[in-house]
Design brief:
The complex is a heterodimer of chains A (about 550) and B (about 350).
Chain A: H1 26-89, H2 95-103, H3 109-124, E1 129-135, E2 141-144, H4 160-163, E3 168-174, E4 181-190, E5 197-205, H5 208-215, E6 224-230, H6 256-262, E7 267-272, E8 280-288, E9 293-300, H7 301-304, H8 306-352, H9 367-424, E10 428-432, E11 435-442, H10 446-463, E12 467-475, H11 480-495, E13 499-503, H12 507-516, E14 523-526, H13 529-549
Parallel strand pairs in A: 11-12, 12-13, 13-14
Antiparallel strand pairs in A: 1-2, 1-5, 3-4, 4-5, 6-9, 7-8, 8-9, 10-11
Helix pairs in contact in A: 1-8, 8-9, 10-11
Chain B: H1 2-32, E1 41-46, H2 56-63, H3 66-69, E2 72-77, H4 90-95, E3 101-104, H5 106-114, E4 119-124, E5 131-136, E6 151-154, H6 160-171, E7 180-183, H7 191-194, E8 200-204, H8 205-215, E9 219-223, E10 235-239, H9 240-245, H10 247-266, H11 268-279, H12 285-289, H13 291-302, H14 314-326, H15 343-348
Parallel strand pairs in B: 1-2, 1-3, 6-7, 6-8
Antiparallel strand pairs in B: 3-10, 4-10, 5-8, 5-9
Chain lengths: ~550, ~350
């Protein structure tokens, strides 16, 4: 019998298309590394350079402005000091004349003229003061280098009260009437003996000196200026660089620098200046206590930093161009490297999914090219192997089928043999007329017992047997069903009018039979075949005698 | 766990207490500031003359909303002459209750007090005297002594200029008989000077002086303030009753007004432009064109070196009092200290 086994199931294609997250993709990673490697250093270097040069530039400018401011403050203090010295020189050697004039309520003209001449000569001998004058403790000007001033009463002038106590440097202020900037230094004249104040020597300073000092452009370049701001109403005491644009002295000016300096602070900062609209300046501000004014030294940031800004802009442009260029190159190169790998990956996925016809068309001259070649080779090999395998599987299957058929044939022969053996292994032998002997050998399965019973009953009927001796000595295994079968045999024999005689029972068989609780009334048992047959013969003879007798 | 909830609940308690306090404070604040809830206080000031930069402090305090910030609604009563041609007297107006505040010279205040009028000066507008004797430079009149023999246009004896002029002559020991004095008639222009009708014109540096300077740079000024005479030519005053009954009003008004003067001093161009914009049509061309230079010239008067706008000095009141006595404008000495108070202007400068 040939068996047609069903064909082996086909290999199901699994999902081999892997999902790679965008940020894990080789191409983008390569691009990122390339760009970072080139752009990052450029950016860092440029950034640091710009910041440092800016900071340095600013520091430099502050230093310069600070030097200029310091220098000018020095000039101003020296001007004040030397002016004070000049003033105090006048009484030297002239004490008598001056004190005499002041002491006299009605000085004679010559004495007055002499003092006036002294004052005007002194005035001409120097350049710091515009006028020298002397006033009494009530404020009346008794003598002056300028005759117009004589007779004026200075009691309500800002410096008057303090000038009676000590020498005064009156900070600059704008006068009534002329609107001129006025500044005075005073020196008390004391009585030689008592030390009491007899009068005051005053000098009106030429304030244009201040203006000259402050408008001097040394160290300021094109975009800088220095100026003084008065504590009174934040007025300018020296000209602004932008005076022509309407930035006149007597109005209030405010800026961070001005306001801080007027609070007494000294420092440097970048801040919007006093103009409208304000421009950012780098400014150094100081408080000048001798003059009670603020000094500002400022440089317009946009102008002074212009060259630096240009350089920075240029560097930045170059850097950006370089960065873009490297980014572009990086992009190209990364793509070039990543592309074949991506292709290879895709094809590999296809192959893994079962399509072995795919080939990679990469012709690189590097490791990737080799990989592609090897991959193609592997795929080809794989395909060949697969095909070879399939063929061998077919061959083996054919062989197996053949073998199976052979086995089937052998099996059939075996069955026949078994049947034959079956038919051979349970002979029923008539030992005498009316007595049969059946020796059971081997196993006693259903098929066999069926055949046996059938054969036995036929022989009993056929031979008119009156006694059947069943020899179970050769029965290999006796269990419940076997015992049942034997009892059945005995019962069926009984039905036919014969008597079954069981011989060759072994001890274990007895246990099994009794254990079953089977009705054994139809069973006669004897120890062995000989005694059984002897009994059967005896019985038969006596029965036959009885029958004949009857 | 237990510890955390304790801290948390303590914190919550603190936050709630803080919120309650803030709520209370906000409520208190709202009821105290007369801002959004209470109506502004109506008040008024009687000016001593027609609108001019002399009163720039008031104009700027209005424009910069300093009165509004103090919850005041100020009415400016222009001075000058009424329909009958009589001079509008600020003292009379204030005493009669028609205005809360007024502007007048120190001489006017002292005279009024000597006549029993209960007015009190609060702050000075011009802290030095603006009175000047103006002449063309070629006349070479530089000192009071140079006035002798010259023709001078003088103002009435009991006017601010008149009193100052008299005080000068007295202190310089110049006799009227040495001078050729004539009464000034034209107060609008300085033509008399340039038409050679007079040698010297008496007036204010801030208007007459600027008018002269506009026409010619070659002018001489003899400033009264150079000769130790600084009678306040315009002070802000009020009645004793107002000070007693409404001190907060007085304080707020003085503070806002001195702030206005400070703003004008800080920004003279803008302030003078504002005056011209507001009142230019009421002014003659000469006056209009001298508003700005006038304000610039008055800056040393509005805020002299070492002082702040509005401040007054005791010795100047004493001096004014003495001058008035000397000139017989007041017959008996009066209690000067009751004629003015520095309290309100000092308070205006307290931080």
């Amino acid at each position: 019998m040939h068996v047609n086994s069903p064909p082996p199931p086909a290999i199901q294609p699994r999902a081999y298309h892997h999902r790679i997250a965008f940020w894990h993709r080789l191409r983008w990673n390569l691009i990122a590394y390339f760009v970072a490697l080139t752009v990052l250093p450029i950016a860092v270097v440029i950034g640091i350079t710009l910041v440092r040069t800016s900071a340095q530039s600013q520091r430099q400018i502050f230093n310069q402005l600070g030097s200029v401011a310091e220098l000018k403050e020095d000039q101003i203090t020296r001007w004040l000091d030397s002016s004070g010295t000049i003033l105090r020189l006048i009484p030297t050697g002239n004490q008598e004349r001056l004190l005499g004039l002041l002491a006299d309520p009605a000085p004679d003209p010559p004495a007055l003229a002499a003092v006036n001449r002294l004052l005007s000569d002194s005035r001409q001998a120097q350049a710091a003061f515009e006028e020298f004058f002397i006033y009494d403790p009530r404020g009346t000007v008794v003598a002056s280098s300028d005759p117009v001033q004589i007779g004026k009463i200075l009691v309500n002038q800002p410096y008057f009260a303090a000038s009676l106590r000590a020498g005064v440097v009156q900070p600059p202020y704008y006068e009534i009437g002329s609107g001129d900037l006025a500044m005075f230094i005073t020196h008390p004249l004391l009585d030689a003996g008592s030390g009491a104040l007899v009068g005051v020597l005053g000098g009106r300073l030429d304030t244009s000196t201040l203006g000259q000092i402050m408008t001097n452009r040394t160290g300021l370049g094109d975009s800088g200026e220095t100026y003084l701001v008065s504590l009174e109403n934040n007025y300018l005491l020296t000209p602004s660089r932008f005076e022509a644009e309407g930035y006149l002295p007597n109005r209030a000016y405010h800026s961070q620098g001005i306001d801080r300096a007027l609070r007494g602070e000294t420092g440097a900062a970048a801040y919007p200046d006093y103009r409208d609209p304000p421009q950012t300046v780098l400014g150094v501000y100081r408080w000048i206590p001798e003059l009670q004014v603020a000094m500002l030294a400022e440089s317009e940031e946009a102008l002074i930093l212009a060259p630096l800004r240009q350089t920075n802009a240029f560097s930045l442009t170059i850097a950006i161009v370089a960065a873009l260029l490297s980014a572009a190159i990086g992009l190209y190169k990364a793509t070039r490297i990543a592309a074949p790998i991506t292709t290879l990956t895709a094809v590999a996925e296809e192959v893994a999914a079962g399509d072995l016809s795919q080939r990679v068309g990469i012709k690189e001259r590097n490791e990737i090219g080799v990989l592609a070649e090897v991959f193609n080779g592997m795929t080809t090999q794989l395909r060949q192997t697969q095909e070879g395998l399939e063929q061998r599987v077919a061959e083996r299957t054919a062989e197996l089928e053949h073998t199976v058929n052979q086995l089937q044939h052998a099996l059939n022969v075996h069955d026949e043999l078994r049947a034959t053996i079956r038919s051979l292994d349970s002979p029923i032998v008539p030992v005498q007329e009316g007595i049969l002997v059946m020796s059971l050998v081997g196993e006693l399965d259903i098929d066999r017992s069926g055949t046996l019973i059938h054969a036995l009953l036929e022989r009993i009927a056929d031979q008119h047997a009156r006694f059947v001796v069943i020899d179970v000595t050769g029965v290999s295994a006796i269990d419940g069903p076997v015992a049942q079968t034997l009892v059945q045999i005995a019962n069926m024999v009984k039905l036919l009018g014969a008597q079954a005689i069981l011989v060759g029972m072994r001890p274990e068989l007895c246990e099994a039979v009794i254990g079953l609780g089977i009705d054994l009334s139809n069973l006669i048992t004897h120890a062995d075949l000989q005694s059984g047959v002897t009994f059967a013969i005896a019985q038969h003879r006596s029965r036959r005698a009885r029958t004949v007798a009857a | 766990m237990k510890h955390r909830s304790t801290v948390g609940s303590r914190r919550l308690g603190l936050v709630l207490r803080l919120a309650a306090m803030l709520g209370l404070l906000a409520g208190c604040g709202a009821s105290q500031t007369p801002g959004a809830t209470t109506a502004p206080t109506q008040t008024s000031v009687q000016l001593s003359w027609f609108h001019t930069i002399e009163f720039v402090g008031f104009y700027e305090a209005i424009r910069q909303n300093y009165y509004k910030d103090a919850n005041l609604d100020l009415r400016l009563d222009v001075g000058g002459f009424d329909s009958a041609g009589a001079y509008i007297d600020p003292v009379g107006q204030v005493v009669a209750g028609k205005a809360d505040f007024g502007v007048a010279g120190a001489d006017v205040i002292l005279k009024a007090r000597s006549e029993g009028q209960p007015v009190v000066a609060l702050a000075a507008i011009y802290q030095r005297s603006p009175v000047a004797l103006i002449s063309l430079a070629d006349k070479k009149i530089a000192r009071p002594q140079d006035l002798i023999g010259k023709k001078i246009a003088v103002q009435p004896a009991n006017s601010t200029v008149g009193i100052a002029y008299e005080a000068l002559l007295t202190s310089q020991k110049i006799k009227h008989t040495d001078l050729d004095e004539t009464e000034r008639t034209d107060y609008d222009t300085v033509n008399a000077l340039f038409d050679n009708q007079v040698d010297v014109l008496s007036g204010f540096i801030t208007n007459d002086g600027m008018k002269a300077k506009q026409r010619s740079d070659a002018v001489n000024f003899i400033l009264i303030s150079d000769y130790g005479i600084d009678i306040y030519s315009n002070v802000i005053f009020t009645s004793e009753a107002t000070i007693k009954d409404r001190p907060q009003l007085v304080e707020a008004f003085v503070k806002a007004t001195v702030r206005g003067i400070q703003w004008a001093v800080d920004n003279p161009e803008k302030a003078s432009t504002n005056v011209v914009d507001l009142y230019g049509q009421q002014m003659s061309p000469d006056i209009k064109s001298t508003q700005q230079p006038g304000l610039l010239a008055s800056i040393p008067l509005l805020n002299p070196a070492g002082s702040r706008p509005g401040q007054m000095k005791d010795n100047l009141w004493e001096q004014a009092h003495q001058i008035l006595l000397d000139q017989g404008i007041i017959k008996q000495p009066i209690d000067i200290k009751s004629a003015y108070t520095l309290a309100f202007v000092d308070k205006a400068y307290q931080p």
